[in-house]
Amino acid sequence: MRSIWVSGIIMLVFANSICCSDENFESSDSPLQVGLTLIQTAEATGAVCLDGTLPGYHLHRGFGSGTNSWLVQLEGGGWCNDINSCVYRKKSRRGSSTYMEKVLQFTGILSNKPEENPDFYNWNRVKLRYCDGASFSGEGSNEAASLQFRGQRIWVAAMEDLMFNGMKDATQALLSGCSAGGLASILHCDEFHNLFQGNTKVKCLADAGMFLDAVDVAGGRTLRNFYNGVVTLQGVSKNLPEYCASRMDATSCFFPENLVANIKTPLFLLNAAYDVWQIHESLAPVTADPKGYWKSCKSNHANCNASQIQFLQDFRDEMINSIEGFTLSQQNGWFINSCFAHCQTERQDTWFGTDSPAIANEGIAQSIGDWYFERKTVQEIDCPYPCDKTCHNLVFS
């Protein structure tokens, strides 16, 4: 089976307007560029990428009132579930620091401009690169294929390095992540909280991390089968939360729906109800739709027929039902909008702009800021498609 890549879907245009007008940036028209730092201490503990190279992160220091506040963003980028897909992955930026960009743009929740990121612009902002293939949770190796499954060790090494470099003094901290990084932020949320003393405000944010154990259009369970390969190959079971592992199989404990209600640290779930990655790769992948019945619908939701829309509405209902236990805690927050999207914190147009997605006239950045700083309760679930006219829906080719 192939490696599943979020970046493997080519995004062409947006059904609503997209950013990049001059009003979204400073006069330089250029987002902040931040260099890559390799974690030199990681090798001693075997905390290495799939190919054995050092892991790394991009850090832009905070300033002013944000000097002692830290935001750690876990990079996403799919998973690999068998030897062939992991060997392929290790020859890319998703499995080797050799191929990583040496400089990344910081936009959206990582931006250093108050007009783009009003609540977190002057925090210490970190992007931890993803090079293991199991949402920073694997533990094992395959000597024959020269593969190192060290996701959990990478997580530990990165946190130790950041703590040494000032994060231990944080008065405020937020762990976030997008897609596979969103799943990682759920898996590691309580571990992150436990790094700090009791006087540090610690919370977590999962963007597009609610991957569901859903039935596909052929009646199978494509994502469950794939996750089973990830968990088995990369030794993920060793690092799954005990509250889940003690009562369920390891693959089930890699699904957020079986985790979020038991996380002790305040957590915010940001997700599109019609998550396009899940539509493409979990609900209607080519393997479940060999005749291409769903091809046109997947490329543009406007092409979906009535039965396909009903299938997607059922998926939305399943997502809402999956967080029922999570919503019982008043410390948690959620923003489930009825958009055909995937990851909304890293792109400037969806994070914070003049026409960013909103529920009840409140956008994503404002909602997450209100929740983190406890300015108000944020527990929003959008009405079903097609009611939301603020969406930045993705259209594919």
UniProtKB/TrEMBL annotation:
<keyword id="KW-0964">Secreted</keyword>
<dbReference type="GO" id="GO:0071555">
    <property type="term" value="P:cell wall organization"/>
</dbReference>
<keyword id="KW-0134">Cell wall</keyword>
<keyword id="KW-0378">Hydrolase</keyword>
<dbReference type="Pfam" id="PF03283">
    <property type="entry name" value="PAE"/>
</dbReference>
<protein>
    <recommendedName>
        <fullName>Pectin acetylesterase</fullName>
        <ecNumber>3.1.1.-</ecNumber>
    </recommendedName>
</protein>
<keyword id="KW-0732">Signal</keyword>
<feature type="signal peptide">
    <location>
        <begin position="1"/>
        <end position="15"/>
    </location>
</feature>
<dbReference type="GO" id="GO:0009505">
    <property type="term" value="C:plant-type cell wall"/>
</dbReference>
<dbReference type="GO" id="GO:0052793">
    <property type="term" value="F:pectin acetylesterase activity"/>
</dbReference>
<comment type="function">
    <text>Hydrolyzes acetyl esters in homogalacturonan regions of pectin. In type I primary cell wall, galacturonic acid residues of pectin can be acetylated at the O-2 and O-3 positions. Decreasing the degree of acetylation of pectin gels in vitro alters their physical properties.</text>
</comment>
<comment type="similarity">
    <text>Belongs to the pectinacetylesterase family.</text>
</comment>
<dbReference type="InterPro" id="IPR004963">
    <property type="entry name" value="PAE/NOTUM"/>
</dbReference>
<keyword id="KW-0961">Cell wall biogenesis/degradation</keyword>
